Amino acid sequence: MIQRIQSVFLLLLSLAMLSVLFLPIWSKTDPVSGQTLVMTAFQLAYENADAGMSVSTSTWPVAALAAASTLVALFEIFQFRNRFMQLKLGMVNFLLIVATIGAGFYFSSLGEQMLNVKMPGTFQAGFYLPTLALLLNLLANRFIRRDEQLVRSMDRLR
């Protein structure tokens, strides 16, 4: 039921986590050589790799966690009749989003070691979207709990 506010929050959450799969998460540029290291949800690789550069590193856990979070949020929307199940799925989604953020930190620290420059790398939009998704998940869970309390109060009046 999309007319409920928590369903809108969950839909926005799934869109945010889906866009993590397509946006860059982290990047770092060496000003001397001009090499740029870019991390996406699927790989950590040099943009214009020379022959001497190391091969790309797979970052599939980030993509898997983001995709799983997207699917859980979409499934949670259609569990509107079972609010307890929605709350459980919200907790699972919370853990998946936190794990996505943690995996992003882990692979960005690997990238810091791959390009040995004293300058730090910069986080891109793909890194901040899980934080937005975390906020949307907390808001959705709050409104799901509010609906459950409303139903319980109506049951007491009967």
From TrEMBL:
InterPro entries named in the record: DUF4293
Keyword terms: Membrane, Transmembrane, Transmembrane helix
Entries under Pfam families matching the protein: DUF4293 (PF14126)
Protein name stated in the entry: DUF4293 family protein
Regions that span the bilayer: 51-75, 87-107, 127-144
